[in-house]
Specification:
Blueprint lengths: L1 E4 L6 E4 L7 E3 L6 E3 L1 E2 H35 L15 H12 L4 E3 L11 H10 L1 H17 L3 E5 L5 H16 L3 E7 L4 E6 L3 H27 L3 E10 L5 E10 L3 E8 L7 H10 L7 E5 L4 H10 L3 E3 L4 H8 L1
Parallel strand pairs: 12-13, 13-14
Antiparallel strand pairs: 1-2, 1-5, 3-4, 6-10, 7-9, 8-9, 10-11, 11-12
Helix pairs in contact: 3-6
Length: 325
């Protein structure tokens, strides 16, 4: 049988072979139609179909390559002051990693925005935390008790320590973490008035460590030219509707997941919860990190050996990440 097909209205039917190469009027739209042999017609259609499919695949591959380069390379981005990470192009691979495990993700774009000064203060804290933790503890206690005026007596401190503490407090004021700052040089007393804004309260209550680890890993990736897709403070929902907030998640080089829970205080009651969580997200022990402030290397090794998790501190976390890339 031959093929009668109208290119204008799509009318289609089979006709006897004796009409091949003859022209007839379409009964539906009155358009002139030439009759074709079925095999030749189908062969031509398939040839065009496979050609178009090949071209489409080539276009998709080129587009994907372009997107991946755009989303994973941050050589020219000021990671300390950018909203680039809030773009879906940046975090979508990290989201897809969870979705492959039937876990839905609610992205917290605000926590990916480094245009504020949280990361700068966090880096300063991380650099000299043994010295500056006294400042943080006094601010936290003041926030808990509901008062805003604080004073520090520095007479027992060395000149170098005084310089570091006053510089840090002055920076807190310039970054609007404090509403007032005054240093009485002769008496060696710092007087502060703290902010009561929830974001500042949360920062000193432990969120500063998340910022510290987050920005350190960004620095690490940029320096080492490691591609990444990341999330911070994202909410994940399991198929049974259980909810959990992810402190930090990085997908490195397109395939290496790094899940991080940051702990600036007591974490013993949470160990069992995180062991269960690691199994639920289906991630290897070495890639699920509990970053606990102040742990010694001996404690990190001991806890990692006891439990199905990897324990690190704020100083050795990058060394561990480098071993799993």
């Amino acid at each position: 049988m031959a093929i009668f097909r109208c290119n204008k209205c799509g009318y289609l039917r089979e006709v006897p072979n004796e009409y091949i190469q003859k022209s007839f009027t379409c009964p539906n739209c009155k358009e002139p139609v030439i009759i074709y042999e079925t095999i030749k017609f189908v062969s031509h259609v398939l040839e065009q179909y496979f050609l178009q499919t090949k071209n489409l695949q080539k276009y998709q591959n080129q587009s994907q390559d372009s997107v991946e380069k755009k989303e994973t390379i941050f050589d020219n981005v000021d990671i300390y002051h950018t909203n680039t990470l809030t773009n879906e192009i940046q975090y979508r691979f990290a989201v897809q990693w969870f979705e492959k495990r039937k876990i839905t993700v609610e992205v917290n774009k605000k926590s990916l925005d480094t245009t504020g000064f949280f990361d700068e203060v966090a880096l300063a804290l991380g650099k000299d935390f043994d010295l500056l933790k006294e400042v943080v503890e006094k601010i936290k206690n003041a926030q808990k008790r509901g008062y805003v005026d604080i004073s520090f007596h520095l007479k027992k401190k060395s000149q170098d320590e005084i310089k570091k503490i006053t510089t840090f407090c002055r920076d807190l004021h310039s970054y609007f973490f404090l509403s007032k700052y005054f240093y009485q040089k002769e008496e060696k007393i710092i007087r502060l008035k703290i902010q009561t804004i929830p974001a500042i309260v949360n920062f000193f209550n432990g969120e500063w460590m998340e910022w510290l680890i987050f920005i350190q890993i960004l620095e690490f990736c940029q320096t080492k030219k490691i591609s990444f897709s990341c999330l911070r403070n994202a909410r994940i929902t399991f198929p049974n509707k259980d909810l959990h907030e992810v402190d930090i998640f990085f997908l490195l080089n397109g395939s290496i997941p790094v899940y991080i829970e940051c702990k600036s205080g007591e974490f013993r009651p949470d160990i069992d919860k995180y062991m269960t969580l690691r199994k639920r997200v289906d991630i290897d022990k070495k890639n699920f990190l509990i970053c606990a402030l102040g742990l010694t290397q001996k404690e990190c090794d001991g806890l990692s050996g006891m439990f199905g998790l990897t324990f690190v501190n704020e100083k050795n976390i990058l060394q561990h990440i480098e071993t799993i890339i």
